[in-house]
Design a protein that fits this description.
With 346 residues, the protein is an alpha+beta fold. It folds into 2 domains: 153 residues, Cytidine Deaminase, domain 2 (3-Layer(aba) Sandwich); 169 residues, no CATH class. 52% of the residues lie in helices and 12% in strands. The protein has a 6-stranded mixed sheet. α13 runs parallel beside α15.
Amino acid sequence: MTITIDGTSDVLAGLPALFGFVPRRSLVLLSTLHHTDSTCMVGPMIRADLSDVVTNPKRAVDAFARQVGDQPVHGVVAAMIRPLTNPGNDTKLPQRDTADTIAALLTGHGFTDIDVVHVPDIAADARWRSYRTPERTGVLPDPAGTVFAAAAVAEGRIIAADRRDLVARLSPAPEHVRERLREPISTTLADATTDQHRPAAAAARLDRADTAIRAASQGTLPTDDADIIDLAATFAMPAFRDALLALPDNTTRHAAENLILHLWRHSDDPIAGRLATVIGIHAYLRGDGVGAQIALEHADSGQPLAVLLTTMLRHAIAPSKIHGVILNASANARHTLLSEPAAEQA
């Protein structure tokens, strides 16, 4: 997210918007990058459960260093988010040994401007304090009033109270519903595979999917079994999936994501594994890395698109860097589907 920042308080208050949920009992490692006008902006970041970090802090720091790569890092903030052991004494910070270990590991990776801070909660008026320089302290502004939150709202991104709320989004329909639709979707996928070689049939299939995305933009999702079956097969078929990735803005991407999530809930593997990847791609292109990662947990990891998405997330590649690639590939896929095959020469 290319938003300039004013200081540690702003960074910490912006974490719910940056991650899409309010992190609790977590370690957050966040980089700030040099901007062209000598200001700083938020760079690659990770979050890990604090219980895991206490056991193996090296794993989190190594993962963070891989994400940062060779980007022009200005500084690193390591935030330990957990309640105080003694709320009446906010100068006695918890898990200082872990904080010292994290600082040493970051130094070992070549980072120089490092601060490790404790904050009991990500909420208005919560006080943070530096482990390394105890007199460095500050108070968080209201997270809902940050520039990060404003950007998230403008882009249609969700800010959940807890990561579990985001995970709960990917809850399938009851088994008997998915069982009823399993065979029809599989049969229709075979039809879609044939349609990719028939331009008129491909055009009709793309038109139905485009219409469904427009309807989802207005808050309407398909309820008829026939429509769900048809659309699930279309978005699960790679040629049609690719042709439908070119969308004009994040609002439309969010609508497409909600539509495919609805189809995913009504599907079983292997169709569901394919659809989860498409959900993840749309989330990633909207800048929702956490949503993309959660979707990947349900995806078929052997799909080339899932492998690509995993790589982009692991290396913290900004969506803006691949928007053009996705748009061009999608346009080419649509053109191929709609083109009559060349006549054979006698």
